Amino acid sequence: MARAFLFNAGSLGASRTLLALSQILVLPVVSRYLTPSEFGDVAIAMSIVVFAQMLSDAGMGRSLIRQPSYDPAEWNSVFWLLAAVGTLLTLGIAALAPVWAALFDRPALLWLVAVLSVLPFLNALTAVATAHMEREGRFPRLALIRVGAGVAGLVTVLVLSVFGAGAWSLVGQQVVIAMVQSLGTWIQSSFRPSRPHNFVPLGGHIRFATDNIGVSLLFSAQRQGPILLIGGILGAVPAGLFSMSQRFLTLPRNAIAGPVSQVVFVRIAKAQAAREEVAEIYVASCRVLAVAVFPPMAVLAGSGGSLFPFLLSDTWASASVIFALAAPGVMIDTATASVGVMLQALDRTRLRLRMIAERTLLRTIAVAIALPFGIEAVALALTLFSIAYLPRYLWFAARVAPINGSAVLDAMTIGALASAIGWVAMLYSAQFYGAWQLLGLSCVTLLLTWVLAILPQMSRLHRAASILSP
After folding, report:
1. pTM (2 d.p.)
2. How buried is residue 163: exposed, middle or buried, by Cβ count under 10 Å (0-12/13-18/19+)?
3. From the record, what ranges are coiled-coil (predicted)?
4. Is the sign of the CA dihedral 265, 269, 271, 276 positive or negative?
5. pLDDT by residue (tens digit) across 246-294?
């Protein structure tokens, strides 16, 4: 059973890692051809598009997966509904492009937003086909599709940036990734929609989707809010620096927490009648995520002061400070992120909506208070908020399953202690070594930190993998 979890989550994790790394590994090249202002423009443009992308499937794919049996008419009805939603979202975003450009007084945003508006439509078209593959457990195939998309996006951004496309190189990367993922999903999925007729009632799915729409909007506000506030008040250059740090900060969530969440959702959906088992699944996910995420984040935070300027050029040196200040909060958020997945799988979408609304409001207030003191203060405020809100976050988890807060903290402790050692080691080493030596030392330190995080709890990690196996 542990092998099944590792195979499914590992294949998805590897593909998402490549997809995320495809946007990280090119930065040493791209950052030398693009200015912080151009990065800021794309970050601001993507903010409104991300809102639409989260609305494009409204969680209906997850709702279909939860059904005990497969009804072709039901799946077909959901497909055509989402196709209509995706079309409306794309047209709406394109129409809002001039408004967005005027709001931020950045004329370049008009065409950036207009082109990026195609992303919600592509996402909506493939949502049902992707859900069908997940229901059949075809995670490795999904992984291969993402690998292909990542490689295609990598080539696109490199070629366009070298040939002087500026911000359009980043836009081209996003569009190519979405197109390749859509094409690959339709080729690999066995789902095929029939013509739009004989629609079945979708009341249950729509109720599920309504709550998820609220959650999606709030998630978007929570993630994009700091960039929008920074861009609107401090300008495009600070927004670009913050966006650069976010590209590294979101890597563990996209590459590791995302795949684990997909597997955890299916696992909890099957065990939803046994709340004790649900609690075990959640704590197991915290243990696995802490070991996977904490060490690389800590090592990069400790060495970032030297590695960011070395890899990206001196222009981006201050992004390392933003990363280091925000990293602890991201580590905590990523390790405990399965609370939302659990509430969704247990059909407690209203409670999930309430939790995200509360968290988004308080987090936005924290950012607004810190904003006058600069982007470094915003990064620190995000970490302090994550630490302060953790007890409340676990309180929501305990509403649906007998989850003990001390068990969650215990699941993260060894990973956190090992990572703290790695962080301090890199901070100390940065005083004595050059950039190339420090890069090699970071890789060695990361491996040793993982060893320190894994060996003392090997048996418990093996049990956690078995619990998470479908």
Report:
1. 0.69
2. exposed
3. none
4. positive
5. 878 887 777 677 777 777 777 887 777 788 888 898 999 999 999 999 9
